[in-house]
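Hey, I'm writing a tutorial for new members on how sequence and structure tokens pair up, and I'd like a real worked example in the thread rather than a made-up one. If someone can provide the structure for the chain below, I'll link this post from the tutorial.
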Amino acid sequence: MSEIRRFQVKSLARVEGEGSLKVRVANGHVEIAEFSIYEPPRFFEKLVRGREIREVPDIVARICGICPVAYQLTACEALEKALGVEVTADIRRIRRLLYCGEWIQSHALHVHLLHAPDFMGVESGFALAATHPDLVNRGLRLKAIGSRIMEVVGGRAVHPVNVAVGGFHRAPAAADLRGLVPDLEWALVAAIDLVAEVSRFEFPGLPRDYDGVCLRPAVGYPMDEGRIVSTSGLDIDVADYEQHFSERQVPWSTALQSVMLPEEKPYLVGPLARVNLCRDRLPPAARLAADTSGLGFPLRLSSQSIVARAIEIVAACEEALAIARDAAADIAPCRIDFVPRAGAACHATEAPRGLLWHRYEIGDDGLITGAAIVPPTSQNQAMIEADLKAMLPGVLGLDDAAATLACERVIRDYDPCISCATHFLRLTVER
């Protein structure tokens, strides 16, 4: 006779989106751990079809309010490849500054307000503000600095309007870029302190030898370009992505799940994968912060992703500061013009939550005829389920509240972006 046990959370906070978890246990063995995403599909790949090339960056920015820059710049790079457009080194440098701003604001939000409460024994960022106001204030200031970079370069912090295929609609003023320096100097010191602080947390979970996947550029830390590499030895051009990874529809989720071929196995993308695979590429201050954290690398617990994000805040602040200090004059030209033509190309960048891959096809009339967009959470969803399945036998003896919290914590480790994440978790255990 089976026993059905249900844990319900009517409003799972500190993540974004809607999802549920169903677990079936038979004879003490977890047979099913289904992480269901049930938000309505948004069809952005269809929305860009028939649109002009110049419209794409503004459309795909709406996929995410937290990481619009990732979608914009990935689309721009893919379309520029298809069009044969080569942007200048100055444009690439300012684009990377914009991406740094997004990493800073996104990581600071997750570390301080969404993830830290799990380690500090409080239920929310509001409760954390009462018990640890200095920590929360630091997080808010770091986030504001990241948002300010996005405003200066992108025109506004949410869904920037200055990003264009070929560069920028308007060159950000060099004086405004240099004006970022004082805040970034503070942010770099604050981020280094943050790494030391979160490295002292107690990290729950089972150590796992993750097969991490990320970009690895010829020079520098992965962000806007590079080859796709993995812990298991994969090293491919982004154009070969679909030969080694595949999206599939599962019955319990409206989001596609990605697996690595040929074994169809789950894999990990995001800060943990990047730090583990590219720690040697971190800029000096970030590398020192990682090396003096007291933790052994590679990091093997999903809960240690909070440390990886903190290290990446240091890296983004360090690089942004160097770019802002060197801003001697407005970039000119700020945009390389192009003539619409038929073509197809793909590109990948590293969104705050992990590898983001886009492919676009352009018809003879210069309009978009096809698109494929693979976001980080689609790639992490199967690994989230694998982590939950491995963790659940150790928590099923707990009461409902404690078991549900343990499941929520695993999901929050990934900072999933479902619409970009999860606001509702229903856990059903069938015995």
